Structures are given as structure tokens and as C-alpha cells.
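User: Quick sanity check before I run a bigger batch. Here is a single chain. Can you write out its predicted 3D structure?
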Amino acid sequence: MKGIFDKTTLKHLKFKNRVFLGPCIHTPEKIESIVKNDISMVTTEGCIVGDFALTKLQPEGPFRIDSDEYIPEIKKLSDIVHKYNSYILLDLVHLGIVSSEHYTPSGGKGILNLDIESKAMTKDDIVKIQNYFVQAAIRAKKAGCDGVEIHGAQLSLASLFCSSKYNTRTDEYGGSDENRARFIVEIAQKIREAIGNDMIISAKIDNPTTEHGFTESGFITTAKALEKAGLDIIEVSGPNPHRNGDQPYFYEDTKKIAEVLNIPVTCIGGIKTKEQIEFILKDSKIQYVAMSRELLKQPDIVKKWSENK
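Assistant: Done. Predicted structure follows.
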């Protein structure tokens, strides 16, 4: 029977419990306020790997890792996290259609209801962007991070490649579940080759969502292909959370892939209570949970649970 406060391992990482901080912040002060209260691992908010445009999503300026000059900023975060015997993954993202070059898999206007003429990516563009991810992962390693997360969800560029709606390519990067997954799978393979086996590689992928063309078969195919590519852990998210009472948004879909994968799976989205986490761990093969908003509101909530267990 799995419990919240089980001590587990993932490669060389030794977790004090099964609770992570999900990707939502990157400011040192906020991360420290949470991680000092018995959080096993932190995933930063999306860190831009290259080719960005300022957007209302990050009005203060982007959180970046597209140059060596940003390594000291990331190193400051990893030092804070390690001070409390926790671990840190840097979430790597390319913004796709809202990047400066407005990349999408197939091009066109009106994608995501944006009045932007997007650029269909050539194979040279694909290799270039994949290399952005690889270089970002190398920088994350230099900055002392314990791993990276490939952001392949929530209509980011890697997410759009996995969509049967937004990816209408007819080459090896489109036309089937396997081909649509190829962009993010190759990123995972190239990162593993570049950073070796002493860092964790995670990925965030979209749950099946008809509105955006994420199919059930594509969801399973992508997860399995990423595991085969050398992923250590996977997380399910998406552009449209399933709000069903107090149930975590992506629980049912996360539970599905936990059944078919041999690597650990993390459940995220709408998790607020100890009772929710206990249910998740008891009812499924899910190994870990990630909390975001609730930890921002109550940074010491997990520590309080531990003290009262």
C-alpha cells in the first residue's frame, strides 16, 4: 500500500515523500518558502529554450535558458532547492505560435483562435528547435539541476505536433500517432544522448481532448514512445482541465497511462487535500503527485500533514 510519506528513489534521487511542487513559479523566494517545508522535488515554470516573443503570459519578461548568461540564475534556484535536500527539474518549453517566428507544425492563420499567420516548420526548423532543447538541457546540467522536463502539453510547440488537428503534415512528423509523437520523442532521445544517464528526464503531455485533436490512441502512443526513448518519469496535463467535483483534473487519464508504463507517473491538477492524495495512491499505480496553487497558498501544508500523521 503506497503512502504519502513513503521514502522512494528515482535513479539516484532519494525522495522524502511522494509530493512535488508542480510547475508554476521560478522566483527564488517563493520556491524557498515551499521547498523548505518537506517537498521532495520542484519543477520550475516553463523556461524558454529559444526563439521567444514577450507575451501577456510573462509580462515581467521571460524565464529563459537560451544562453549561457542565464545559467547563474538557474544555479541560484538549484542551490536553494538542494539546501533543503530536495531536487529540481527545469521545465523546458518552446512557445510555438506565440514565439517570434510563429512556428507551428503545419502553418496557417487562426490557429488557437489567434490572428497570427503561423509558419509551417521545415525539417531544418525542426532540427534547429530540437537543438534548442538539447542546449537548454546542457545548460540546466551546468546549473546544477537534477533533471529537465520537456514541456509537451498545453498547446506549446511540442504539444501542437502531437495534435491531429494542428498537425496536418504528410511527412514523417505527421499523419499517424507515431509520426506526430516523433518531434518530442526525438527531443527526449537527443537530450539523453547529450546529458547522459545521471540526470532525470521528464515530460509533460496532453490528456485526450477532442477540441484540440489529442486522441486517446495518440496519448497512449506518445507516452509509450517517450518511455522507450529513455524518459524517467511522465506527467499528464492539458489545455482543458476536466473539472469533476473534487477529483483532480487529470486523474483518470494519468491513471490510464500508469497502467501501461513501467516508469513512474505523476498526477497534477486540482490537488488540494491529503485525502485526495491518499485516494490517488490507493486507487491507482500512480507513484507521485504534484501540487501548485495550493502550495502557493499554504507552503507548509505537507509539513503539517507529516507532523499530524
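Residues 123-142 form the longest helix (20 residues).

User: Great, the batch can go ahead then.
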